[in-house]
Amino acid sequence: RALVALDRIDLARASFGDEESLTDLRAEIAKASGADTRRWRRIDQGDLQSQWDAGPGFEKGADAISARTEFPSTCASKLALPDRYGFEAHVSILDPSEENGMFGIVFGANANAMQIVVVMANRSVQLAELEGNSLRPIKPIGRVKQGGPLELVIGIEVSPKSVEFFIDGKSVAKRPYKPDELLGDVGLMVQGGEGQFRNLRVRY
After folding, report:
1. pLDDT tens, the chain, 204 aa long
2. 178 exposed, middle or buried (CB, 10 Å; 0-12, 13-18, 19+)?
3. CA end-to-end span of the chain, whole Å?
4. Phi/psi of residue 6, nearest 5 degrees
5. Cα(118)–Cα(103) distance, rounded to whole angstroms?
6. Phi, psi (degrees; rounded to nearest 5) at 12
7. Which of 125, 126, 185, 116 has its CA nearest to residue 151?
8. CA distances (Å), 117 to each of 17, 30, 112, 136, in order?
9. Among 82, 87, 105, 104, CA closest to 183
10. C-alpha 92: how far from its chain's center?
11. Is residue 202 within a helix (H) or strand (E), and if so which, with residue range?
């Protein structure tokens, strides 16, 4: 019954707009029932030129999108997403610079700024905002275990006013954002070494 109700609310939102009363009702039913009509979709990694806005260094490999660069570079998906979505990427890091290595995902990427979740060379996972060439750290949310490969799955669940963050499938933080901070694309980021990105997918 919950799935039927959520489907009908989604139809109403598509027909009449994303009114706050419908959004709140959907969230209430989903939370009470644990039901979710959204599904995971793979992001096309085939043609970077047509599917992505790829910055310097990014290229398509046999099974991953990768980049090696000393300066900040991003690769933004051209996929249009709704205001509620999930995004996930398996990030592997090679030869990170101890001084400025950062590797991860971006969201809310637009002409003015972007929000980022990055793994640093010291294995800490950080939230930050990149505005032009200015990086504003926000908070640490985790750490990759010592002794193993420098890789992890970074995930986010975005809603109109907040974002929940996941490391290897586990929720580690939730933070409020202004709506205009979340307007924009999702994508990938590399600085100071080589980053490889696999199993890119979105849920909506």
Report:
1. 777 777 787 778 767 776 778 777 877 887 777 667 788 999 876 678 888 999 999 999 888 999 999 999 999 999 999 999 999 999 999 999 998 999 999 999 999 999 999 999 999 999 999 998 889 999 999 999 998 899 999 999 999 999 999 999 999 999 999 999 999 999 999 999 999 999 999 999
2. exposed
3. 20
4. -65, -40
5. 5
6. -65, -40
7. 125
8. 31, 27, 17, 12
9. 82
10. 15
11. strand 193-203
The one-letter amino acid at 154: I
Structure tokens at 15: 């027909």
Q: Is 50 exposed, middle or buried (0-12, 13-18, 19+ CB in 10 A)?
A: exposed
Tokens of 131: 């505005």
Measure the CA–CA gap between 39 and 27, rounded to whole angstroms: 16
Structure tokens at 40: 């995971």
Instruction: State the virtual CA torsion across 23, 28, 29, 31 in degrees, nearest 10.
Output: 120
Q: Report the run of H or E that residue 21 belongs to, with start and end.
A: helix 20-33
